[in-house]
Structure formats: C-alpha cells, structure tokens
Amino acid sequence: MPRIKRTSRREPMEDIIYEAPPQDHPLEKYFSTYDDLNAYLITFSDRKEIAPRYLDVSLLNTQNFHSLTRILNDQGLMEFVQFRDNYYSDLVGMAYSTLKVDFNEQNEAEFMFKFKLFKKEYEIGCSELANIWSLPYSGCLFDGKKTPQEWGSNIKQLAYEMFNINRQPKKKASINVLTTEMRVLHYLLVYVIMPRSYGHGHIKDEDIVTMWAMVNEIKMNWTYFIVHHMLRYTKGVSSSGFGYVCLWSKIFNHFGIDVSGEARKGMARTSVINISTLHHMGRNLGEQEQEVEEQQPPPQAQAQEDQGGPSEQPSMSDLLRAIQSMEQNMNQRLQRIEDNQANLQQVQVRMRRSIRRMEAYVYSEDEWTDDNQD
Hints:
- This protein has a domain at 44-286.
- It has helices at residues 34-43, 58-62, 66-74, 78-82, 89-97, 126-133, 155-162, 180-193, 205-215, 222-234, 245-255, 275-281, 299-306, 316-373; strands at 4-5, 17-18, 48-49, 54-55, 100-103, 111-117, 120-125, 173-174, 202-203, 241-242, 272-273.
- The strands form five sheets. A three-stranded antiparallel β-sheet has the order 5-6-7.
- 47% of the residues lie in helices and 9% in strands.
- Helix 1 packs across helix 5 (89-97).
C-alpha cells in the first residue's frame, strides 16, 4: 500500500489522499486513481443493492385494474415496469461511486450522464439514455422533491386530500388507507420506479405527489426523474442500499463493457409483482376494492344491544372483514420488523466506516512517527 500523505496530524480523515494510482490494490483494474478508489471504499463497498422487482402485466387484466393500466400507458412506463435482467451489483456500486450528471443551465431536461469503470470514463446524453431505458424524456420536470411552480404551493395537501388521507405533521400515513389499485401503484413506485430500502408500508410526501401527478395525467419526464434518484444514492440519502441495478446492465451493454468474470446475479422468484403480492397485502381479491375499516354497528342494532335484546350472529362478510383486519395487523408488524432490520444495517455500515477510518488514522500516525524519528 503506498504511503499516505498528511499535511497535519489533526487533518480530517476525509482529506487523506494517496500519492499514486492503485497499482497493487485488488480493485486496481476498476479505478485509475486513488481518489476514485477511496470514494468507492468509503461510500459503496459495504452497501448492498436494493433487490430489483418487475410487474407481471397479467395482474392488471385478471384484477381489472383498468385505471392503473391507463396510468402506466399514459406515462410511458408499461415497458419499464416489466423489465428484468441479470445484474452485477459490485460493478454497479463502483459506477455509482463515480457517477456525475452535468445538467444544462438553460435547460435542465438536457444533461450528460457520466461514470467511470475499468479505468475508462463513459458519458451518454439524456435522449440516448431514455432510449436505452425505454422511458420518455419529455414532459414535466419533477425530481421527486422540488415540485414545479405551476403545481402550486399547496400541492402536497391537495394530493393527500385527493386520496382521502388525513395528513398529520411528522407522521407518515399508512398504505392501508389506499384502494388496492392505488396500493399496487404505490408498490410499483417504491420497489421499481423509485426503489428504496425500507419504509415501503408508509406514504411519503414524494410518493403521494408523484401518484397525484400520474393519476391526473400529467406527463412526466421519467428519465430526468430517475436520474435524480440515482444521484440521491450517491449522496447517501439512501445509504442502506442502491437501486436500478438492472438499468445499469442496459448501460453496460450499450457501451460494450466486458462483464465476463464478474459476479452476476439473477432475478429471484420473489421479484415478480403478481397475484401473490396482492395476497401479501391482505386484500379481498374476489371483489372490487372497498376500504377495510372498523365499522360501528348500525344505530338500531346498537340500541337493541343496549336494551338487552337478541343479537344476530355475525355474517360471512363480518368474518371476512375480521380476517382481513388480522392480516393487516400482521403485515404492519412484519413491516416494522423489516424497518428495524434496515436500521440495524445502517448502523452496521456506519460502524464499518468508522473502523476503516480509525485503521487509516492509526496507519498514518505510525508513518508520521517514523518520519519524525528519521
């Protein structure tokens, strides 16, 4: 390992630089400089990919999800949500660690997508990238956070009201308040269109605003949208994982990058979004969706019960509702367990980074001491 150059004993670990290219490092064939190698080791080497998922389109027909079908077709996302491929998570992490996007100052819809891999730099324009991903690159510019001015300042409140959600400050709404069709749309958002590592059972502001735009037939520039989400992975917003691994396979193939000998992964059986996904949601699939809520007995029945009159036996629909309520409670508990596991993974990643920095610091202190003795 080449010696580490430090200008001060108190210098932060982030300012440590290496003097030479990584000629003797096991990953030297991927990186041309130690700056790039360090960026990967510190930010991505311990992170894992977000498992990719895809839609079984027959689900839309068998469940009569006509509105969802229309939304996906109008937004130009039907082919995108069905895409599946093998992927190379290690290479994707390396590419993410060097990813940069140069946006045109006069027109943000125009940009250059750049990354480094195997000691080469690759770049591609927005229109060509959209063609590779089978996505539209024209339409409203929305990055998932900053809403366009033409949508208004109270767009979040309008979006929550549209889906009959009582928005509460500092508290995320549960997906249980959505109809089955809208729950599937939300599922596609958080697992495919803008994948995240945890919190799939809750509705964030960016989720509800994106759904509002899709339902209201506002054409979106999805290439712009997804590139911004990719950049969020590089900035540590989603530090427990990185997504779009299958999209990177398309990019590697476009540039003819040799991936032979690299660790390859395939889609798991659980990656498909189909009828089993709906069963996991705990919904009644035999009927059109109606909200599952705790219903109070009608006033007449309540008065009869208060007066000590005869009570009727529970009907089959009551039993079904009770079963569905139990399933929902179980799904919520499972979701909390998944969230806790994701939080533990984040803690583990931070601990590994701290240990790595401490080791580098000890090494640098030894070098400094040796230099003084000399």
